[in-house]
Amino acid sequence: LTRLYCSENQLTALGVSQNVALTELGCHINQLTALDVTQNEALTKLYCSENQLTALDVTQNVALTKLDCSENQLTALGVRQNVALTELYCWRNQLTALDVRQNVALAGLYCWENQLTALDVNKNVALTGLDCSDNQLTALDVRQNVALTELYCWRNQLTALDVRQNVALTKLHCGSNQLSTLNVTNNAMLTELICYLNQLTALDVRQNVALTKLHCEDNQLTALDVSKNMALTKLVCADNQLTALDVRQNVALTKLDCKNNQLTALDVRQNVALTELHCWGNQLTTLDVHQNVALTELHCWGNQLTALDVRQNVALTKLDCSKNQLTTLDVRQNVALTGLDCSENQLTALDVSQNAALTGLYCWGNQLTALDVNKNVALTELGCYINQLTTLDVSQNVALTELYCSENQLTALDVRQNVALTKLDCKNNQLTALDVRQNVALTELHCWG
User: Fold this and answer.
1) What are the residues whose beta carbons fall under 8 Å from the beta carbon of 316, sequence distance 6 or more?
2) Whether pTM exceeds 0.85
3) Those residues with Cβ within 8 angstroms of residue 157's Cβ, 6 or more apart along the chain or in another chain
4) Residues 6+ apart with CB under 8 A from 111
5) In the prediction, which pLDDT does 410 show?
């Protein structure tokens, strides 16, 4: 026997000590708590991931080129004798140390989600892929790893990262660290740059013309020039301190997330490919989405908008324009809407009769005197509290699980058909009677005042 593959079973034990001719062993996705391969010196490939191994001795397996022992419970792994290794997968274990200085043939090293505090890859000059994310690394020197095309080192404790020598990099994910600077001017081949949740005050991506994905959210950026990044399809620069953002050259954008900045204007008229726009928590007074007919999600709440025309955005499934200053909102053309939140505006009327696909409707904190939801039979959540409603008919909304209609002027409320209700808040109205005998699923009922 030279090849044995017994993966995806329920094996609790496997004895291969007599199978000394084995070159390939695949026993991943079982329930093995131990595996002895010390007699299998001919092994070149060993796949034992997703078991319950607490120890693995591969010191005798000097011919190994590929080792995958990820998703076990290993606290130590010695691979210094395995100098032929080209690929090592040991992610999601409990390793506190990993010595790969002798493994100079390594092209791929994937040791993410362990407890490593240090990792020396200076001798691993053949590396093209390195993923050491989700560890406790305080430093990482990749200056000798000039062949690297993909580097993932997110969620560590790195305060510095020098990638100026790594000109072959196409993907760099270094988010959730403590980086205060990041120089990618030499990395012209980058297609993905993910550097969110750091302490960056500046980021120059003008040389990175191949970028298709840029995530630099949760930093301290005051400016961002993406005018040269015309290949961008996804840009996430939320939670910074940007006062301006010019995306007119980024016509390939499908997702733009610039929420929680200090933007006073945003021109997306050229971004006709946009399917998602998240620009909430800024200071926008106008927003023109006439040209963005591909939009499926628009989140523009928490701005200073006095008008919003979405009549051309017929593909919209989610619209959140709450916490603005809107006096009117026409969603009659938006028949694909499943979620609508227009709360905390100044609306006096709202017609949702064409929005039969709605499952969630939140229109609270307006000045509505009437609301017809008879056609919205798919509704599971309705929040229409703090308005001026005198009547509310929910007899057709049998799918409702949550109904919030408090602080209106209701004199009657019939919820006998709404047997799926788990939460009902109808407090501070003028109700003289309330029959909830059919609402046996209720876990919360607020009917005071």
Assistant:
1) 295, 296, 297, 298, 310, 334, 336, 337
2) yes
3) 136, 137, 138, 177, 178
4) 88, 90, 91, 95, 98, 119, 131, 132, 135
5) 98
